[in-house]
Amino acid sequence: MADTQQQRRRLVVVGNGMAGARTVEEILTRGGGDLFDITMIGDEPYGNYNRIMLSHVLAGEATVDDDDLMLNPMAWYREHGVTLYAGDRAESIDRFAKTVTCASGRAIDFDVLLIATGSHTFFPNMDGLREPDGKLARGVFGFRTIEDTNGMLQMAASRDHVRAVVIGGGLLGLEAAYGLQTQGVAVDVVHSPGHLMNQQLDERGGRVLRNKIESLGVGVHTGKRTTSVLRNDDGTVAGVGFTDGDSLPADMIVVTAGIRPNVEIARGAGLVVERGIVVDDQMRCEDEAFIYAVGECAQHRSEVYGLVAPLWEQAVVLADVLTGANPQAEYHGSRLTTKLKVAGVDVAAMGVKGPERDDDEFVQFYEPRSGIYKSVVVRDNKLIGAMLLGDISKANFLTQAFDEKVPLPDERISMLFDMGTPSAETGAAELADDVQVCNCNGVTKGDIVRCVASGCTSVGEVCAKTRAGKGCGSCKGLVADIVEYAAGDALTADASADWYVPAIPLTKPELIDAIRRQNLRSVSEVLEKLAPEGEDATAKMPLASLLRIIWASDWKREPGALFVNDRVHANIQRDGTFSVVPQMKGGVTSPEQLRKIADVADKYSIPMIKATGGQRLDLLGVKKEDLPKVWEDLGMPSGYAYGKSFRTVKTCVGTDYCRFGLGDSTQLGIDIETRYQGLESPAKLKLAVTGCPRNCAEALCKDFGVVAIGEGKWEIYVGGAAGAHIRKGDLLATVDSPDEVIRLCGIFIQYYREQGKWLERTYAFVPRIGIDELRAIIVDDRDGLVAGLQERIDEAVAAYVDPWLDRAEPKSPAQFTPALPLLPLPQVPVR
């Protein structure tokens, strides 16, 4: 064993992004764990994550906790014997002493060095872009990191009517615009070239894409060069100015004007650097024997790549070379094919954008009304370029043709439509094994077929093992087709799709039954008794929520199983402070409450008080250690604005003052909130009661909405939404009394609590179950479940305890002690 240890070389990887981590994965699969002691250095305080998924996070389609975002969580490094220094920046390399020195002062020795520092957002020279100390002005963001994304989300949520300008109309800029628009931000895209995505699309393609983007409500300004960031007197962003003297107002500016390789550390070390770090066909740095570079920081044969597919190809070659699996392996560059979804629009592009010679064949189909554009460029009977927008059903065939794996048809138009070439339906069988199916994660058809052959016979298993479909998602349909083709009759449904958490092979009702029968009261007990492979960190928060649903206050609290919001009963903010929202039932308050709120804000120097959409007041910027004192001085119950729980009931004026009121919506809203306040649920619950069909309280787009329609009758709607998703609620029932509204509200909430998936909002839950089925179960009691649901909701209501009473007896010594952030965070501005 000692000899083996002596032979192990020290491999240091500078950069913990997608390229560096993928290379380490490839090295490990080739037995590299026995050859190297591997150390990775990353300047972000996380494991390796998928930057492509940040667009989904910004659009509200995913969260930073999603497995699809985090490719290699912290546990992965421990499990594979990889030392990770996260949140520590590598600052210098000494090639001769073979050491890397970090910002912390840590010096790390190496025998082999891999530089995978990626790239950074390019910020053009613009007046007002930065503060005197060089930091970006308040309200200016790149779109490159989790921190960037969280910053934009926090600003979008900080107030109503936020306006944003996105500088750069390429892929990233349009994704940023789309994400912000879904968050309710008014967005304009400014692009200095004449058409959008000019790197991938020609002018006509750009025109079709522009129509699509503008139809989403996003303003598009092409041919405009931004020269300045306009600022308010307090230093915040006011807008942008252009070379022609025009300007656009904005509260937020997102710069997506391109990326630049991170080469400063390589240049400082004396390595050969041009646009990127110059490498040879084995990814070795020029004139170096033991230093390599991969990814967006590397320049190979004069090319620097900004897409992920070349990164994966480079990682495979370097892993073969370093482990000796194939010492002669070489990377010869990549033929780029792009297949992705831009702001909801399918796009595929490869090769040249248009004819370059007089004898080039050029076939186009242009239908702007339907949002479809297609073109191909053929030279010497070879496909040298193709572009598809809106309809990419022929992308698989064109990809094979571009790689010269299939002959071109004599009728060139049939390359764009199903006129003799393989159809979309048969494309999965006809694809060559080396065709890349998932560009985001470098997964080929052959990888998927081999995965099926190894025993994975469901789409979920294949996606989990290969990561296919875990990026932009545009390939999911094809992945499913290939799995079905490869598995044949052995194809199985994803059993885990119905599990409440991945670690425990039980549906939610089965899991609830097992927890009750075995009297399991803590997350650790549930995992110990019911998880076959032991603890799973991703299961802790959903299990903690479920235990609170089952046992109410009688569950065993374990701080490690709770998100910080649930530990301290307040909503953490961008700068590490918290927001406090006291309860105001039905949106009704009093002079006494308002005076208390004002006095508390003065006493604790709370920088912002904001009216919320739920008709309450939000105190923003409260220090963690001040939370108990703030709650005590307010003397008001928690409004639960931080949890996955029953939050608030919005109401209109009702009958007391409104000339049109048909029912006392204010009192009914207060009664509903009084009864069901704070109930734990799979996701947050927002309710509303409106006194007439004019719907001033927006009851039709709430999780549970009630509308007075006259003659003492009330309509009940469920499954509505008006956030990132827009959905009118479905009519569950029409009832004759407020008491019946309150009863059915409790039955619906309890059924949702017991049947809803973790983080599944009612706007997804109701369509999944079906309104007719819900009506049969909840209203008609077809299955005899209502009595049990009523009993359990009564027990939950009786066990209610205001969580802000923790101020008297904290659950742990650290519950309300200060917690400094791991890295400097931007401060929320004082207004």
UniProtKB/TrEMBL annotation:
Q: Broadest EC class? A: oxidoreductase
Q: Cross-referenced SUPFAM superfamilies, in alphabetical order?
A: FAD/NAD(P)-binding domain (SSF51905), Nitrite and sulphite reductase 4Fe-4S domain-like (SSF56014), Nitrite/Sulfite reductase N-terminal domain-like (SSF55124)
- Occurrences of domain NADH-rubredoxin oxidoreductase C-terminal (ranges): 338-405
Q: How is the cofactor bound?
A: Binds 1 siroheme per subunit. Binds 1 [4Fe-4S] cluster per subunit.
What are the EC numbers?
A: 1.8.7.1
According to the entry, every stretch annotated as the BFD-like [2Fe-2S]-binding domain falls at: 437-484
Q: Per the database record, which ranges form the FAD/NAD(P)-binding domain? A: 10-302
Which residue ranges does the record assign to the Nitrite/Sulfite reductase ferredoxin-like domain?
Answer: 572-634
Gene3D superfamilies, alphabetized: 3.30.390.30, 3.90.480.20, BFD-like [2Fe-2S]-binding domain (1.10.10.1100), FAD/NAD(P)-binding domain (3.50.50.60), Sulfite Reductase Hemoprotein, domain 1 (3.30.413.10)
* Pathway the protein acts in: Nitrogen metabolism; nitrate reduction (assimilation)
Q: Which GO terms describe its molecular function?
A: 2 iron, 2 sulfur cluster binding; 4 iron, 4 sulfur cluster binding; flavin adenine dinucleotide binding; heme binding; metal ion binding; NADP binding; nitrite reductase activity; sulfite reductase (ferredoxin) activity
| A Gene Ontology biological process term | nitrate assimilation
- UniProt domain Nitrite/sulphite reductase 4Fe-4S: residue ranges: 643-778
Q: Which UniProt keywords apply?
A: 2Fe-2S, 4Fe-4S, FAD, Flavoprotein, Heme, Iron, Iron-sulfur, Metal-binding, Nitrate assimilation, Oxidoreductase, Thioether bond
> Which co-factor is required?
siroheme; [4Fe-4S] cluster; [2Fe-2S] cluster; FAD
Nucleus keyword on record? no
Binding residue positions for siroheme:
696
For [4Fe-4S] cluster, which residues are the binding ones?
652, 658, 692, 696
Q: Where is the signal peptide?
A: none
Q: Does the keyword Iron-sulfur apply?
A: yes
Give a short account of what the protein does: Catalyzes the reduction of sulfite to sulfide, a step in the biosynthesis of sulfur-containing amino acids and cofactors.
- Family to which this protein belongs: Belongs to the nitrite and sulfite reductase 4Fe-4S domain family.
- Name of the molecule in the record: assimilatory sulfite reductase (ferredoxin)
Q: Provide the species name.
A: Gordonia namibiensis NBRC 108229
- Gene expressing this chain: nasD
